[in-house]
Amino acid sequence: MDPTHRGPEEYGHDSNDFAEEAGRRRPSRDPLTPDFSQQTPQQARIVPLISGDLLLTVNPVDGSEVELCPPGEQPAAPVRRTPAERADRERAAAPPVPPGPPVLQLPLLQREDERERLTRLLAGGRSVRLTGPAGSGRTALLNAVAADCAELAPDGVVRLNGHKRTLTDLLYGLFEAVHDAPLHRPDHDALLEKLRTTGAVVVLDDLELGGAALDELLDATPECAFLLAATPDVAAPGPDSHLEEVFLAGLDRGASIDLMERVVERKLTEEEANWAGDLWFESEGLPLRFVQAGALLRQRDMLGTDPTAYDEYGYLENRPADEPPADDAFGTQAAEVPLPSLGEGAAPAALLGSRLSAAARATLRFAVALGGEVPHQAHLPALVGDTHADAALGELAGCGLLSPAGPRYRLAAGVLAQLEAAGYGDDATERARTVAQHYAWWAGHPSVTPARVVAEADAIVAAMAQLVPGDGAGQTSVAVLLARSASPAFAAGLHWSAWERALRIGQEAARIAGEVAEEAYFHHELGVLALCAGNLDRARAELETSISMRGALADKSGAVAGRRALALVEDRSGGSAAGLVRTSGEIPSNPLLASPPRGLPAVIPLSMPRTSPAETVVVARQSAPQAAEKQGGGPFAMLGGARRNLVAAGAGVLLAGVLGTVVTLGLTSNTEPQGDPGGSAEQSVTDGGGQEEELPAEESTDGTTPSAKSSGSASSSSSSATPGPSGSGSAPAGGGGATSPGGTASATTPSSPGESSSVEPSPTRTKPKPTASSASPAESETSEPPTETPPTDPTPTDTETTEPEPGVPDSSDSASGPTGASASPSVT
Q1: Are 545 and 530 in contact (CB under 8 A)?
Q2: FRET pair for 686, CA 20 to 30 Å: which of 371, 596, 631, 656?
Q3: Tens digit of pLDDT for each residue in 771-806?
Q4: 670 and 684 Cβ atoms separated by less than 8 Å
Q5: What is the three-class DSSP state of 237?
Q6: Which domains does the chain have, with CATH numbers?
Q7: Sign of CA dihedral 434, 440, 443, 446
Q8: Is 497 buried (19+), middle (13-18) or exposed (0-12) by CB count in 10 A?
Q9: What pLDDT, in 10s, does the model give residues 317-338?
């Protein structure tokens, strides 16, 4: 369960009594299904969010789903927080108080002039950039100035931390501090609109932005006065920023010695004062160095007293009774403990850590493994393996080895490098793996809220980054598991920069570990994140990659979620659905939806070729840029191509109607007058044979191939065709036959699927009523021959059979049509 949740024995219940009571309340198990009652359903944290005009459903199972926000689910307009709500939020965002004895509260020495100047500038609406080296006391000065400016602005004082925060993080952090908008992340335009009317004193510590990014932050909040604290290595703002520059120097020698005496809580001896003077010259009067040096003197005093006097506070370990109490860890008599050297005073982290408890030293090793990030005190017992390890945070804070960073602590300036030089980072990989396994279990627990996971975002991301790329067995798999558990919580907690970093690290770890399903999930999430952020090109590439991977894995539910998101990308980019055809291999039901951009041929095959997932990804990634380059008209070029295709489709429908009308009129009006000497019934049958060409050449009207019936239908496929007035005596195109000596040709192509070209009807078939378009053989013999007859080669007699040409339907197969009519019924 959650490590921060208290057990039943801590609420006054004995564990045995609690178990017996739970057993009495537990329902009886079914004897037929004894195992079913032991199983609990897996809980998935599905959270709906509103991002701009999109409804984002964070689904940790198949991937997040995104769609347009329905009309009835638009969020209410953000409301401003009241002063009481701002105070409660500020207390919740403060670093936790370490357990154990209270940490010594030191006064602000020799900063009265800077404090007064900063307050005066902020009261006049001016923004100030406070620059000072690490360890110069910038955080303490900011706290004092923030207390002085509590009543200056209508929206109060907003405390932000810029450690590893981007410009977008700071803008949304300011919006959330002033406005109450749960599960709502406005788009960029709406965000800027709200920030333009925000009037607050923004105190921003550990700033890492400069140049154009800092100018954009100031331009987005014209009604706010900023107090920015940064180190000298951060880029300076632009020349048009109108920022007041205040440089924070170190303390003088008298103030430094005074600060050390407040830490030691006594007056310094002459020897200690001389040592402090040398340290002041070496450290340039940085207050942090004198706080740490005072901690060294306090430890020296502890070693010179009875160790058992401090056992109740846990400062020193219990020793056997026969051990001399005056010996310290170095085997030196307490009265003879020398002063630290000047080098140890300037870099005291290793010496301070060696005199702390085992839990405190283990905590330092975990912090070094995480790049300086210290886990929350509630996680220390599980990580260290000591139930009282949470007290180690108080030891480290009292020695000046920690500094606050937003809602948590991290190693103070310079401590990380000093501990790494002392060997605290030798087992950093193993420590990071332990932290990652613990956070993977904790972040995925249903009882842990997204806000608590967001508070540990820096430590979680640092643990993943330490394991990727990893040489040890299973390191990347642990990173994949942690990213899979923490990234949905980051998304639900609206910390999207941490969400993106976790997805990037998880995708790389899944690629190295060969976990294709997890890699497809991370690509899908990156595509959804890019879609919500408005980066459509990146969203299209990530979603296409995810769909291809999930298609290869037969992950239908995941592929469907990816196609929906990709359809929304195409809709927002003004493109067509051709991307869906390239990615999924499916042809839309409406061919007009798959119209290509300008300059690309519209070819929709009847059957899509089978390709591998890798080839699908390559085709999807190469075709989109080429289409965009050929389009050349921006997003409206796709609309123009769609209009052109619609016009062409309408013209095609009109042309088909006209051709159908012409063919119908031709079929109904091909009867020749009885007195016409130049026409015959066979000519009308031959002229109407154009409709037969529309049938496939490989299949006859009854579904059989011509080769299967060629032997049985050759004798009945000869009929004489008399040329018309035009003098053409050849058969229709594609037909074959023989020409009699009298000039009549034997045609093998019937006039229609329902007619036969035999000379005499079969006696077994029913003779229909004669029509005007059919004539008897007797009438054909009495008609006058044509004036011109083209020369023909002698052909076999009527009794001989002819082989049909390949690809020409057999006339015997179409002897009777749908109505059973014969081609040349005799007229009675």
Answers
A1: no
A2: 656
A3: 444 434 334 343 444 444 444 444 444 434 444 444
A4: yes
A5: strand
A6: 8-38 (no CATH), 111-247 (3.40.50.300), 253-346 (no CATH)
A7: negative
A8: middle
A9: 544 444 444 444 444 444 567 8
